[in-house]
Structure formats: C-alpha cells, structure tokens
C-alpha cells in the first residue's frame, strides 16, 4: 500500500444487524463478525475493498455531514428506489456532473449516514 492510500473505511451505526442487512441486500457487501467484537463488523465490497461498521455506544453516531463515500452503481434511480424501500432516504436525486464524469446522488442509509452513488450513465 502506498503512502496516502486509503487503508480502512469505517462508519457508525446504531443498529449493526439492520445496517448489515441494508448493505448486504442493496450492494452485495459481505460481512464478517470478529469473535468477541459484538459491536463491530468487517465488510468487503464486491470488488474486494473493505472496512468496518461500528455500533460501539461510546463511538460516533451516524451523521449526515462530513466526508462522503460514493458507491458505484449501474442505475442510480433504481438504487435510490431500493434504498427508500430499505429504510434509507434520498437527499439529492440523480444529478448530472458532466458528459465526462457521469452522474451522482446522495442518500441517508437506514441509520442516518450520508453516502453517495455514482454512475457513468
């Protein structure tokens, strides 16, 4: 890993099981629970990226501010519909960036973390 590379992504939750179901069903993330870490789950995305989700009551709470992690999807509108059905909420609908850079949208997950979606079309 090179200096300055992202080493680990972590975001908070107030309901580890519900957040796990949200990302498993919508984005195909796999989760591993570390024995003895009842409030933490490690995730792996379909392309092998990974991080963690923490439900530690002493930690940060979900937030709709701060840095935004964007997830690549094939259909932003369909994904936003699925997010709404799974307990999330659209903040910014599908918005064109440019012909060169495609589209984005922002949403809150089922516990209130702000994330983004990105697609070429």
Describe the structure.
This protein is α/β, with parallel strands linked by helices. It has a single domain, classed as Roll (2,3-Dihydroxybiphenyl 1,2-Dioxygenase, domain 1), CATH 3.10.180.10. The protein is built from 2 helices and 8 strands. It has helices at residues 16-27, 76-85; strands spanning 9-12, 30-33, 40-44, 50-54, 70-72, 89-98, 102-108, 114-119. The radius of gyration is 15 Å and the shape is globular. The mean pLDDT is 94.
Write a concise keyword list for the protein shown above.
121 residues; alpha/beta; 2,3-Dihydroxybiphenyl 1,2-Dioxygenase, domain 1; 4-stranded mixed β-sheet; 2 helices; 18% helix
Quick structural summary:
The chain is of the alpha/beta class and 121 residues long. The protein contains 2 helices and 8 strands.
Termini separation: 31 Å
CATH superfamily: 2,3-Dihydroxybiphenyl 1,2-Dioxygenase, domain 1
Mean pLDDT: 94
Strand order, largest beta sheet: 1-4-3-2
Provide the CATH top-level class: Alpha Beta
CATH topology: 2,3-Dihydroxybiphenyl 1,2-Dioxygenase, domain 1
Strand portion: 35-45%
User: Main sheet?
Assistant: 4 strands, mixed
């Amino acid at each position: 890993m090179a200096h300055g590379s992202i080493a680990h992504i972590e975001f908070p939750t107030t309901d580890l099981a519900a957040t796990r179901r949200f990302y498993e069903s919508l984005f195909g993330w796999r989760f591993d629970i570390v024995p003895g870490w009842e409030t933490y789950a490690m995730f792996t995305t379909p392309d092998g990226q990974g991080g963690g989700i923490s439900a530690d009551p002493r930690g940060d709470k979900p937030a709709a501010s701060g840095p935004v992690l964007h997830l690549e999807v094939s259909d932003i509108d369909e994904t936003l519909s699925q997010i709404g059905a799974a307990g999330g909420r659209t903040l910014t609908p599908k918005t064109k960036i440019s012909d060169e850079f495609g589209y984005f949208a922002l949403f809150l997950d089922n516990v209130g973390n702000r994330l983004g979606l990105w697609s070429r079309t």
